[in-house]
Specification:
166 residues; mainly alpha; 80% helix; elongated
Amino acid sequence: MNGSEMWRSYLLAFSELTNIRLVMHAHGEDVLDSIRVSLLRGGTECSAALAYVPSLGVEQQMEILPQLTSVALVVGGSTTEARQLIVSLPNDRVREFMLKVQPEVIQRSDYEEYACLLELWMALGGESQARQLAEMAAAEDREDIRDVGALYICKLEQMQAGDFAP
């Protein structure tokens, strides 16, 4: 297949995708349920769901915030995309949600998940919340959580001094 044929195939696929999206918008809640499931399955399904989320309205995106947060707190290929989608939502509502789920996340988290939680707070402009969480982590019994706390306290101090960009 040459470049011209590949481009025509791409245009055809793009046209079909556009038509499918229009039909999906008409099915609202049914589609949200499928997106919720796909976000938690990972891989290509998660990537496809993340690519579709920006076409949803803000209220629909807020409805799937728990699943977006789950993706954003797991180190993997979709973490950054999920975090960017979360940061694009109304900050005050996202922060309120994060404060509600944070105790459970902290309870079950490992080093990477705790680090992702701190990164998400920093991306939301919640440096004071990130600092508080980092200090809590630094006092934890679990060594891996203490390590992430110490690392982020250092990062936050460097940011404050202007020596580090998030």
